[in-house]
Write a structure and sequence with these properties.
0% strand, 105 residues
Length: 105
């Protein structure tokens, strides 16, 4: 019985899609874990630093800033990795070429 074989480019395309999907899930879980950590840390910081209203607002503001930076970082890293590099194939072809033989060697 003959086994059907997929061509290498199709196989690599499927593997690349699975890797991108895995990276997206990993980034999502890191983001959720970071937000959960902030949810736990901010109230504890408020208790430790004191009970004044100004301190509570400062801790809340710092927490909001951290959340915004996390979201921006996730967008930049997620979009940067998923976007195809310009000229990737031509660069790969250029790097894969063997050096020209000199003097008929």
């Amino acid at each position: 019985m003959a086994v059907s074989r997929t061509p290498i480019p199709i196989f690599l395309q499927r593997v690349r899609a699975l890797v991108y999907q895995h990276e997206a899930w990993r980034a999502l879980f890191y983001g959720v874990a970071a937000l959960a950590a902030l949810t736990l840390v901010l109230p504890l910081l408020g208790i430790v630093l004191g009970g004044s209203r100004a301190t509570a607002l400062a801790v809340l503001g710092i927490g909001g800033l951290v959340v915004v930076l996390l979201i921006l970082g996730a967008v930049v890293l997620g979009v940067g990795r998923a976007a195809p590099a310009v000229g990737r194939r031509s660069r790969a072809r250029a790097l894969g070429r063997r050096p020209a033989q000199r003097g008929g060697q």
